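Moderator note: this is an archived Q&A kept for reference. The question asked for a predicted structure of one protein chain; the sequence and the answer are reproduced below.
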Amino acid sequence: MTTEDGGTYICTGSDLQSVAQDKVTIIVTSLQDHNRMRVYIEPTQQTVRAGSKVEFTCEVEGYIWPNIYWQKGEQSLNISDHVLKIEKVSKADEAEYYCIATDLTESSMARAFLFVIAGKCHCCLTSHQMSNNISDKQ
């Protein structure tokens, strides 16, 4: 049965003395539409310092055993796990990352961003520290 088989059907029966008629409306939905694969990456964005550890998790809904692939930009990564781990992030790791899930009939993907702050902060003052330094000088 396909979605095109949906519609109103009329059944008519008769004998020599009477005619009976009834109708029914059938709506056919595709099971595949309800189980369409949806892919999410958590978190969708991270901003970290160089040297930090980063993890992105690929969540797939609607299909139990898809194949998972990761890409950094257009470059395929040799990772087929739900979790992308980078132990010591460098500025070169800053990119868009894609999780691609595929099965025999469809594929779907999600995107996440990694921003890397390189170097150490030599002159970092909070607004509270700045106001204390200004009031000390007055």
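Archived answer notes: The CA atoms of residues 50 and 90 lie 5 Å apart.
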